Amino acid sequence: MEVKENVPNGELSTRVHVLDGPTNPMVTPLLTDLYQFTMAYAYWKAGKHHERAVFDLYFRKNPFGGEYTIFAGLEECIRFIANFKLTAEEISFIRESLPSSCEDGFYDYLRGIDCSDVEVYSVSEGSVVFPKVPLLRIEGPIAVVQLLETPFVNLVNYPSLVATNAARHRFVAGKSKMLLEFGLRRAQGPDGGIGASKYCYIGGFDATSNVAAGRLFGIPLRGTHSHAFVSSFMSPDEIIDKSLHSRDGSSICEDFVSLVQTWLSKIQWSNSLRGVFGETNQSELAAFMSYALAFPNTFLALVDTYDVIRSGIPNFCAVALALSDLGYKAVGIRLDSGDLAYLSCEARKFFLTIEKEFGMSGFGKMSITASNDLNEETLDALNKQGHEVDAFGIGTNLVTCYAQAALGCVFKLVEINNQPRIKLSEDVSKVSIPCKKRCYRLHGKEGYPLVDIITGEKEPSPKVGERILCRHPFNESKRAYVVPQRVEELLKCYWPGNSGKPREDLPPLKEIRERCIKQLEQMRPDHMRRLNPTPYKVSVSGKLYDFIHFLWLNEAPVGELQ
Ligand SMILES: Nc1ncnc2c1ncn2[C@@H]1O[C@H](COP(=O)(O)OP(=O)(O)OP(=O)(O)O)[C@@H](O)[C@H]1O
Ligand SMILES: O=P(O)(O)OC[C@H]1O[C@H](OP(=O)(O)OP(=O)(O)O)[C@H](O)[C@@H]1O
Ligand SMILES: O=C(O)c1cccnc1
Ligand SMILES: [Mg+2]
After folding, report:
1. Which segments of the protein form a coiled coil according to its record (predicted)?
2. Among candidates 427, 393, 512, which has minimal Cα distance to 122?
3. Which of 63, 122, 490, 494 allows an S-S link to 439, with CB 3.0 to 4.6 Å?
4. What are the DSSP calls for 372-432, one per residue?
5. What confidence category does residue 413 fall into, taking pLDDT thresholds of 50, 70 and 90?
6. Distance of CA 166 from the midpoint of ligand 2 (Å)
7. In what helix (H) or strand (E) does residue 479 lie, and over which residues does it extend?
8. Is the CB of 209 under 6 A from ligand 3?
9. Cβ count within 10 A of residue 475
10. Residue 223 CA: which ligand 3 atom is closest?
């Protein structure tokens, strides 16, 4: 790829810029299944290895019982092929792993291969996508493209699954809530953790607790503190340096601990809160005071270590009010157990009472974060019950994709040497759509996407205002005419190889996330609902329909009845 960049003397220079390799250094040409190398050898032995092949990468069913999927993982695929080259050590290992009868010429061939003769067309990362529509179309010498099958499927599968999971959590939580990804400790290993943070951000999360992901991808970092911090304190006597400067630096409070204690008794004996709580836990109070002394500008306390209503919330409020005396604004609390709907409502009431009782304008709006085994269902239940949570911290269920373990992407040969190929199956949903194809999204009058249509590569593209027949690929009776108001070509050239075609830029993560959020907003609501969503239509042109069925009949042997 060529990029212009500013050089120190102010002139523009052009230099060849090499795309960085995959984020995970384990992603090498050996990160594939053995059978890709055995097939590559057999292609080579048959003298077929240079034959030009076209493969489609797609999935057959949307995950999580939904009717949409978010496509993610493209950038890593492109970085992988941009740097695809087998080292001498890797080739020696393949030689050791294949039978000794394999001829030396094959290893000479492997030494020379890269992806300069491969072309990759892809849907843009962060797009809303549907079953059967190719997400990527990969064309090149068959032996090389065959080697890409496993890594490409691997690089797309989990990212798309977890981005979809994140988008679904966002859908239930609503636009206005802050969503924090807290899954690193429970993710499937380091790559699962890093991937989850990146792709949950694409799917609509706001921030992650994963520091490495923050550094690698510039994702906003957020966090609170754990129960360990609270239980590590025994009493306020442990606090040695009790002084705190006021926010504007104009004064100093020499004994912040006493200031907090004074506020605690004011709350306890106030008209509206008298009798609501007695003695609060003093070790918890010590922890909160210490945290506030360390972070006076961003004080947030985990309030459920001992008792949320009788200890955590009053203790938090006393510290927040003392901070307020010094010009600081506390951020809020986190709840990590119990009935999150009930406790959040009780906390809100408490904050509003403080606001009223002490004339503390804005105190009622204190932020409430909730965590603890959250998932789509619990978010939905909280919504139905009514809650006062502003931010959700979600880990295990989100990043492990507990509700569905894999997306099930496949990589199928659709053409070789300009000859269309088909994979038949007893199960119609598993029959592949042959030919090198183009894909379009047709938008209707109301602006919603209506249908995706797949056509042969050489067919004229659908035109705005022109009626086009859209057919179900396998079901003869399902067809519809569409007059598109907007036609969007889905597969774009992200890796032209040496074809000389222009190449789409790989956008920054934030742009991918914005695309995802925008596309989700544009979907017709009935495709998005959680219960019995309407399937989005995926179709083929009349010409492609006829061809699929011609090839099907041609390739399927006629049975004999005995
Ligand atoms: N109001 C609510 N409606 C539905 N589910 C809720 C509600 N509040 C919390 N939950 C969920 O109920 C489950 C409570 O789990 P569990 O009983 O194991 O935790 P806990 O006892 O509250 O806390 P912990 O054991 O972590 O100290 C969690 O999955 C949580 O997300
Ligand atoms: O529940 P998740 O959705 O995975 O979110 C992350 C969890 O990780 C943290 O504690 P951890 O679970 O390690 O300890 P805990 O079970 O005592 O809360 C945090 O307090 C959350 O509970
Ligand atoms: O910052 C937090 O509150 C956090 C981070 C990771 C896991 N649980 C909580
Ligand atoms: Mg937990």
Report:
1. none
2. 512
3. 490
4. SS--HHHHHHHHHH-----EEEE-HHHHTTTT-S---EEEEEEEETTEE-----SSGGG--
5. very high
6. 18
7. strand 479-482
8. yes
9. 9
10. 1
* Whole-model pTM over 0.90: yes
- Atom in ligand 3 nearest the alpha carbon of residue 395: 7
In a mutational test of the pocket of ligand 3, which residue from 197, 205, 226, 295 has the highest number of ligand atoms less than 8 Å from its CB? 226
Question: Could you tell me which residues come within 8 angstroms of residue 89 by beta carbon, excluding any fewer than 6 positions away?
Answer: none
Can you tell me whether residue 277 is helix, strand or coil?
coil
Domain with CATH 3.20.140.10 in the chain: 2-166+403-555
pLDDT tens sequence across 485-514: 999 999 999 999 999 999 999 999 999 999
Q: List every span in the chain annotated with CATH 3.20.20.70.
A: 240-385
Superfamily covering domain 2-166+403-555:
nicotinate phosphoribosyltransferase (3.20.140.10)
Q: How far is the CA of 395 from the centre of ligand 1 (A)?
A: 14
- For the domain bounded by 240-385, which CATH number is listed? 3.20.20.70
Q: How many Å apart are CA 488 and CA 504, to the nearest integer?
A: 15
Q: How far is the CA of 316 from the centre of ligand 3 (A)?
A: 18
395 lines ligand 2 (CB under 6 A): yes
ipTM: 0.95
Atom 22 of ligand 2, nearest CA residue: 372
Amino acid identity for residue 555 in this structure: E
